[in-house]
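We store amino acids, C-alpha cells; thus:
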Amino acid sequence: MQESKSNEQQLSNDDQKTLELVKEKAYVYQQKWVQAEDLLLDFKYMNHQKDEKIKELEEHIEKLEKNLNNLKGPVKPNHKKK
C-alpha cells in the first residue's frame, strides 16, 4: 500500500490528474456494468414470469376445449311433430 502511495507521490501533477480521471472512469464503467447486469436479470425474471403465464393460459385453454368437446357430445333432436 505504501509503495502505491510513494509511486503516486512521485507522479507529476498532470500524471496525478490523469490517474484520478482514469480511476473515475473505471468507477463509472463498473457502475454501468452493475446496472447492466441488474437490467439483464430483471429481463430474465420478467421473461420467466411471462413463460409461466403463457403455460397457465395454454393449460386453461386445453381444459376449456375438453369441456366444450364434452358438451357437444351426441346431439339428440328434440323435435315435436304436430
Summary: The chain is about 85% helix and 0% strand. The CA atoms of residues 68 and 74 lie 13 Å apart. The longest helix spans residues 13-72.
